[in-house]
Q: What sequence folds into this?
């Protein structure tokens, strides 16, 4: 009997921790959301229990505020807040960042003053103590500028509140040349960005931002060798950081220099072997190189991390297509389509499957849909022409 009671107590304790963490997370993210609504004019989205994954969530909408709630004890991702528009001033951005950790602490203050009156109610007193402790912990753990970024559901990188504040402070100390280049990048005037960036490189200012903007401009224009040459120049000025090796690998991959791409990816992998973005790039690279076994293995690693990983499903479908396991390949593509039905790569993959199955009508339909959705895979127009000629 005592054993069963112990199990029940443990389960109740676990549920209590989940509920309290859920509560502090909810107040934390709303603490970001309310100043974001005040200082911006576009929508603000709060995710509770995920880093942007909206599958199997409860959805609430209040004007410009959207809330996605996901309860998954086995894969708890805390939460996040995103706002479409940037605040117009740094102090407004700082308040949006600070609003999160401060909000849950403010909520706990009435509980602190309420403690004495409920001291005789053991469970209620304990509950309040735990909530206050969680709120204080939330304040310090979020404001301490520790660690690097963490990967969102869509592959983008986010940072803790403390790191975000540190980055905001660093940004406030940047030179006017940086902001001039940033405006050109935001305006997508990449030719002007490259020209102005090259001029800024010759200005004796600290930092590497001019090189980074020039590289970004060349990358957007698909002038990959020029981007690599700029990295070579940068290497003579500063020591490359880990992320540079990853970006260089992506450039070599885009330029179809697979061996060099693999070399840089492996260098990056030594310290970042669990990076989701790296695994995605490696999976594609292995398949491009004709190493289907490693491509399938990498896809399975991605799906082991997250069974709803969109690119992991597509990579597995692609590998299975090469192995001519078509029913399984279609099943994986169907899964990917259920996760992101508007992504053109889904229909390009369907096209590849039906191309192998010698079904030109379905091949053409899917390649055309992929193109209509914006697919830019090299050779897609040629594949469409071939499919049309075979109908």
A:
């Amino acid at each position: 009997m005592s054993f069963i009671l112990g199990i029940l107590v443990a389960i109740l304790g676990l549920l209590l921790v989940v509920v309290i963490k859920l509560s502090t997370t909810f107040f934390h993210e709303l603490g970001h959301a309310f100043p974001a609504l005040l200082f911006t004019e576009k929508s603000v989205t709060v995710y509770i229990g995920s880093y942007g994954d909206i599958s199997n969530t409860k959805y609430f909408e209040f004007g410009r505020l959207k809330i996605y709630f996901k309860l998954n004890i086995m894969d708890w991702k805390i939460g996040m807040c995103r706002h479409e528009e940037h605040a117009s001033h740094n102090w407004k951005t700082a308040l949006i960042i600070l609003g999160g950790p401060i909000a849950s602490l403010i909520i706990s203050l009435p509980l602190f003053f309420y403690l004495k009156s409920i001291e005789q109610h053991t469970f209620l007193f304990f509950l309040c103590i735990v909530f206050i402790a969680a709120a204080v912990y939330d304040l310090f753990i979020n404001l301490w500028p520790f660690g690097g970024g963490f990967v969102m559901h869509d592959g983008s990188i986010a940072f803790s509140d403390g790191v975000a504040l540190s980055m905001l402070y660093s940004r406030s100390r940047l030179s006017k040349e940086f902001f001039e280049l940033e405006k050109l990048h935001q305006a997508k005037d990449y030719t002007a960005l490259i020209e102005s960036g090259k001029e800024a490189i010759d200005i004796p200012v600290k930092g590497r931002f001019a090189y980074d903007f020039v590289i970004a401009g060349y990358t957007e224009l698909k002038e990959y060798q020029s981007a690599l040459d700029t990295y070579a120049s940068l290497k003579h000025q500063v020591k490359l950081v880990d992320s540079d090796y990853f970006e260089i690998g992506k450039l070599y991959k885009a330029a179809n220099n697979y061996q060099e791409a693999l070399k840089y990816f492996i260098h990056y992998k030594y310290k970042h072997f669990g990076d989701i973005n790296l695994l995605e790039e490696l999976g594609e690279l292995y398949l491009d190189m004709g190493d289907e076994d490693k491509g399938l293995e990498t896809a399975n690693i991605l799906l082991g991390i997250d069974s709803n990983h969109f690119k992991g499903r597509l990579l597995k479908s692609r590998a299975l297509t090469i192995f001519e396991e078509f029913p399984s390949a279609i099943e994986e593509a169907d899964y990917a389509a259920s996760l992101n039905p508007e992504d053109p790569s889904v229909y390009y993959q369907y096209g590849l499957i039906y191309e192998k199955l010698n079904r030109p009508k379905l091949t053409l339909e899917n390649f055309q849909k992929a193109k209509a959705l914006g697919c830019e895979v090299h050779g897609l127009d040629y594949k469409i022409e071939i499919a049309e000629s075979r109908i």
